[in-house]
UniProtKB/TrEMBL annotation:
GO terms for molecular function: 3'-5' DNA helicase activity; ATP binding; ATP hydrolysis activity; DNA binding; four-way junction helicase activity. Residues 33-207 form the Helicase ATP-binding domain. It comes from the Eukaryota. This is ATP-dependent DNA helicase. Gene3D superfamilies: P-loop containing nucleotide triphosphate hydrolases. Belongs to the helicase family. RecQ subfamily. GO terms for biological process: double-strand break repair via homologous recombination. Its main location: nucleus. It holds the Pfam family DEAD. It is found in: Nucleus. Coiled coil: none annotated. Keywords: ATP-binding, DNA-binding, Helicase, Hydrolase, Isomerase, Nucleotide-binding, Nucleus.
C-alpha cells in the first residue's frame, strides 16, 4: 500500500495548470480527486464529456506509486496515452497493439517493484493473467500500487448495455488488495447497474464515496426526425447540412472568425452512426458526390484506411468533415468541435444512443443530435432481438448472463422507442428520467419538444408509417434483417 497522505498536502491546482493546461476544476472534480487521494473507494457517474479521466489521471501524477487503469476501449487507451505523453507523463499501455519489445520493457519496470510508470492502461482480459497478477503483487509488496481506475464501469454489470464478462473478474483487486483504493467511472448506469457494479467488485457500500453528477448536456440539441421506408431521408439530411454551410457563409463575422481558427465555413465536423456497414460506404459516397467531405469507418475496412479517415477528421482536413461509422466510433476520441451527431436509424440501446450523441459539443458549444426514427426500423430492431433470443443456448456456462443481457437489451430498446415516440416531454428530461437522475435538466429550447411541441406532433403524424401498416408488414415477415455489423 502506498504511504497515505492528506490530500491537502498535494498542490493539485498547480498540477492542473502545469500538466493539463487547465485553469480551474469543473464542479466536483476537486472533491473526487481529493477523495481518491485520501485512499477512499470512489464511484463517479457523470455526463459524457464531464472530464472523468482527469479524476484518476491527476492523482496518478501527484501521488506515489502506479495507477492501473482498466479500459475496454483500445482507442481510448491509445488516445489517452498519446495525449499524456505530450505532457511528459510516464504512461504506458499493454493491449493488442503493444509490441513485444515494449511489453517486455513495461513488465521489467513493474518487476523491479518501484515502477517509473505513473499510469498503466490495460484491458480487463489482461488483468486475468497470472503473469500480470504476479507483477502486481510485487509492486504492492513495495507499497507502490497506488490505485485502480475502472473506466466504463457499466461493463461490469450484466444489467448494463455493454456487459463484458472479463470485467466481473476485476473483483480480484479488492479481494487481493483490500486497502488499495478503486475508482469506478461511467456515464451510463441505472440504479440497478450501480448496485450490481458495487457488489460485483466487492466494494463496501458503507464506505464508498458516491458522486452522481447530472446526465444533462444543455449544449446538445436533441431532435427526432420521423421517417418511413417510403421516403429516402438522405434528402432531409443533405438539406440540413447545406443550410448549415449557407448560414455560416452568409455571416461574414462568423466566416472571418472561422478563418482565423484555420477552419472553413463548410467544415462542419460530424458523425453519422448507422447499424450497417454497407450504409457507411454508400452514404459516404453519396455525400461526396454532393460535395460534402465524408469518409466511411467500420471494422471491415483496412486498418490504413480507417487510420487515415480518423486522422483526417480529427485534423479538420478538407474532405474529412463527416465520418459515417458503425457504432462505437469516436468513444475515447476527444475531438472538441463535433457539431452534430446523426443516428441514421434507431440505435440498439438507450445507453448507446446517449454515449454516441455525447460525442457532440465537447467544447461546450451548441451542437445537434438528430435521430432518424422509423417504425419499420423499430420492428427490424425488435426482430433482430427476437432472433438473438431464439438462437441463444439453453444450457451451459454463461447462459444465465446471456439471457439477462438480452432481456436488458430489450428493455433498453423499448425505452428508446418510447423516447422516440414521445411528444409530451422535454427530451433532456426523458434522458434524465431513464438514468433516474433527479437533478435539474435545463433546456433552453434545446430539444424539438421545447422548441415547438405542436409542430413535433404534426411531423410525427406526417412522417411515420401507421401502426396498422407496420403490423401487416410484420406478419408478412418484411422486417427480418441480416445481422447488425
Ligand atoms: N477542469 C477542466 N477544465 C477544462 N477542460 C477540462 C477539465 N477537465 C476535463 N476537461 C476536458 O474535458 C474533455 C472531456 O474529458 P474526458 O475525455 O475525460 O470526458 P469523459 O467524462 O471521460 O467523457 P466521456 O464519457 O464522454 O468519454 C477533455 O477535452 C478534457 O481535456
Amino acid at each position: 500500500m502506498p504511504n497515505k497522505r492528506k490530500a491537502a498536502h498535494y498542490d493539485i491546482d498547480f498540477t492542473l495548470r502545469r500538466v493539463f493546461g487547465k485553469r480551474s476544476f469543473r464542479p466536483t472534480q476537486r472533491e473526487v480527486i481529493t477523495a481518491t487521494l485520501e485512499g477512499e473507494d470512489v464511484f463517479l457517474q457523470a455526463a459524457t464529456s464531464f472530464g472523468k479521466s482527469l479524476c484518476y489521471q491527476l492523482p496518478a501524477i501527484v501521488d506515489f506509486g502506479i495507477t492501473i487503469v482498466v479500459s475496454p476501449l483500445l482507442a481510448l487507451m491509445n488516445n489517452q496515452v498519446a495525449s499524456m505523453r505530450k505532457a511528459n507523463v510516464r504512461v504506458e499501455t499493454i493491449n493488442s497493439t503493444t509490441t513485444a519489445t515494449n511489453k517486455r520493457r513495461i513488465m521489467e519496470d513493474l518487476q523491479c517493484g518501484h515502477p517509473l510508470t505513473r499510469l498503466l492502461y490495460v484491458t480487463p482480459e489482461y488483468c486475468q493473467l497470472d503473469s500480470f497478477r504476479k507483477l502486481l503483487r510485487v509492486v504492492h509488496s513495495q507499497r507502490e500500487l497506488a490505485r485502480i481506475a475502472i473506466d466504463e464501469a457499466h461493463c461490469v454489470s450484466e444489467w448494463g448495455h455493454d456487459f463484458r464478462p472479463s470485467f466481473q473478474q476485476l473483483r480480484f483487486f479488492k479481494d487481493e488488495f483490500p486497502n488499495i483504493p478503486v475508482i469506478c467511472l461511467t456515464a451510463t448506469a441505472t440504479a440497478r447497474v450501480r448496485d450490481d457494479i458495487i457488489q460485483t467488485l466487492n466494494l463496501d457500500p458503507a464506505k464508498l464515496k458516491m458522486f452522481r453528477m447530472t446526465t444533462s448536456r444543455p449544449n446538445l440539441h436533441y431532435e427526432i426526425r420521423f421517417k418511413s421506408d417510403e421516403e429516402d431521408h438522405y434528402a432531409d439530411f443533405l438539406q440540413f447540412i447545406k443550410a448549415t454551410h449557407a448560414r455560416r457563409a452568409e455571416n461574414p463575422a462568423r466566416a472571418t472568425q472561422l478563418a482565423t481558427q484555420n477552419q472553413r465555413t463548410d467544415n462542419v465536423p460530424g458523425i453519422i452512426y448507422t447499424l450497417f456497414r454497407k450504409d457507411c460506404e454508400s452514404l459516404a459516397h453519396r455525400l461526396c458526390a454532393d460535395g460534402i467531405g465524408a469518409k466511411p469507418y467500420h471494422a471491415g475496412l483496412p486498418h490504413a484506411e480507417r487510420a487515415d479517415a480518423l486522422a483526417g477528421w480529427v485534423d479538420n482536413r478538407p474532405g474529412y468533415d463527416i465520418i459515417v461509422a458503425t457504432t462505437a466510433f469516436g468513444m475515447g476520441i476527444d475531438k472538441e468541435n463535433v457539431r452534430f451527431v446523426v443516428h441514421w436509424q434507431i440505435p440498439k440501446s438507450f445507453e448507446g444512443f446517449y454515449q454516441e450523441a455525447g460525442r457532440a459539443g465537447r467544447d461546450g458549444k451548441a451542437s445537434r443530435c438528430i435521430l432518424y426514427y422509423g417504425r419499420e426500423d423499430r420492428d427490424r430492431a425488435a426482430s433482430m432481438l427476437a432472433r438473438d433470443q431464439a438462437r441463444q443456448p439453453q444450457k451451459g456456462a454463461g447462459v444465465r448472463a446471456q439471457q439477462q443481457q438480452l432481456l436488458n437489451r430489450g428493455k433498453s430498446l423499448q425505452a428508446l422507442i418510447e423516447y422516440c415516440e414521445s411528444t409530451e416531454t422535454c427530451r433532456h428530461r426523458l434522458i434524465a428520467k431513464y438514468f433516474a437522475d433527479e437533478g435539474e435538466t435545463p433546456c433552453d429550447f434545446a430539444c424539438d419538444w421545447c422548441k415547438d411541441a405542436a409542430a413535433l406532433v404534426r411531423r410525427k403524424e406526417r412522417g411515420l408509417a401507421s401502426e396498422e401498416w407496420c403490423s401487416t408488414q410484420r406478419q408478412m415477415g418484411r422486417y427480418e434483417v441480416d445481422e447488425y455489423e
